[in-house]
Amino acid sequence: MNQSVYNHLPNPKLGYGNSRGSNVLNIIQRFLDNDQAPICGSTLFIMVKRYPNENDVHDLITQLRNNHVFVYFSVNDTPSGGNNPRALFDLSMYTNGYCVFSRFTGDVATYSTDVFDETYQIVAQNFVVSGSGRIELPLFKFPEPYPGEWQNFITWMITIQSHVLDSDFITLNYTFASTDGTSVLTDPDPNIDTISGLMGTGYSGWTELNGTNEYKWTIDYKYAGNEPQVIEVRLYNRNYQDFLPLPDY
After folding, report:
1. Residues 229, 128 contacting (CB under 8 angstroms)
2. Neighbour count for residue 149 (Cβ, 10 Å)
3. Where in the numbering of this chain does the DUF7154 domain appear (predicted)?
4. Whether the predicted pLDDT of 211 surpasses 50
């Protein structure tokens, strides 16, 4: 992924001034309007340096939801123009995608797309929180193609703010624990090299879990103040799952 990005960098001579917003919303609309390929169930992954200026994305979100199109954004936290990053976050949140704000580095493209190693969503929920507390996700269990022997790979993404990372965020930790007590995975843990730490506003990672067990996922968070914060929680697996319910909109 990194090599592909670096081999197709944009021509800086084609840029425009700092005040002009991105045309990314028009690009998404053109994708929805195309008559060359079906779009139902599509995944859009978009890296953004320039923010849009538009405020009203209601119609675009409705079209995306009607076609089960997932929108994922990796957004630079230092824009070259535009003034409305919240439009990008809303497009992702209301389509069961996610939006990560970070400083673009050599690993960002790979990190932002790690979850796509596993195709199907098994958890997609959003939480509005403040201060400190705990989120407890419903118990989940994987389909078991080979009873007693199958290890199921999972990938996940947790985003911690709906905007560029600021000082309100203090900490976040999460735990996967099997209900029979045989398996517990807690992150961040610097001793586990399969788990990535916080990059910008996103935590992503992968591991394998026993397909015979049920698991509980808990997330502990702490923010400095009482300002509402949005946490997006996504979990993926390679075994077929139907579309999950979309959030109220």
Report:
1. yes
2. 10
3. 125-237
4. yes
> What is the pTM assigned to this prediction?
0.87
Give residue 205's pLDDT. Answer: 83
User: In whole angstroms, how far apart are CA 2 and each of 7, 11, 28, 105?
Assistant: 9, 18, 23, 10
Cβ atoms 82, 23 nearer than 8 A = no
Angle between helices 58-66 and 24-33 (to 10 degrees): 40
Q: Are strands 229-237 and 120-129 parallel, antiparallel or unpaired?
A: antiparallel
Rg (CA), the chain: 19
Phi, psi of 98 (to 5 degrees): -155, 165
pLDDT reading at 190 higher than 60: no
Chain mean pLDDT for the chain: 86
Q: In the prediction, which pLDDT does 1 show?
A: 60
Q: pLDDT tier at 132 (50, 70, 90 boundaries)?
A: very high
Residue, of 185 and 53, whose pLDDT is higher: 53
70-76/43-48 β-pairing: parallel
What secondary structure, in 3-state letters, does the chain show? CHHHHHHCCCCHHHCCCCCCCCCHHHHHHHHHHCCCCCCCCCEEEEEECCCCCCCCCHHHHHHHHHCCCEEEEEEECCCCCCCCCHHHHHHHHCCCCEEEEECCCCCHHHHHHHHHHCCEEEEEEEEEECCEEEEECCCECCCCCCCCCCEEEEEEEEECCCCCCCCCEEEEEEEEEECCCCCEEEECCCCCCCEEEEECCEEEEEEEEECCCCEEEEEEEEECCCCCEEEEEEEEECCCCCCCCCCCC
153 vs 28, higher pLDDT: 28
